[in-house]
Amino acid sequence: MREVKRVADLTADEICDLWLTAQKVGGMLECYHKASSLTFTIQDGPESGQTVPHVHIHIVPRKGGDFERNDEIYDAINEKEKELKKNLDLDQERRDRSLEEMAQEADEYRKIL
């Protein structure tokens, strides 16, 4: 696995793997959160609101009535991104999680896999 900043930097195989993984994870999250839909988003580059400089997909489980208008999800995501950007110094390396933190997260996800 390699880290790339922009979607255009991914190979065709990586794009396929990314979306197949998003499909699988999305299905599990939808079931786990008893949701009825999913919103998938990618911010590709700083001007799009990308605050973490590598390709990743946000997968948001959705339920009926979670927003008055469905498109309000994008405003909510943008607000969270702005909040994150204020608290994240992109000129510094992000702190790697400890093995214990990663193991705990893996245990939680293992329950829904």
TrEMBL record:
A motif (Histidine triad motif) lies at residues 54-58. PANTHER family: BIS(5'-ADENOSYL)-TRIPHOSPHATASE. This is HIT domain-containing protein. Residues 1-69 form the HIT domain. Residues 93-113 are annotated as: Disordered. GO terms for molecular function: hydrolase activity; nucleotide binding. Keywords: Hydrolase, Nucleotide-binding. It comes from the Eukaryota. The keyword Hydrolase applies. InterPro entries: Bis(5'-adenosyl)-TPase_reg (IPR051884), Histidine_triad_CS (IPR019808), HIT-like (IPR011146).
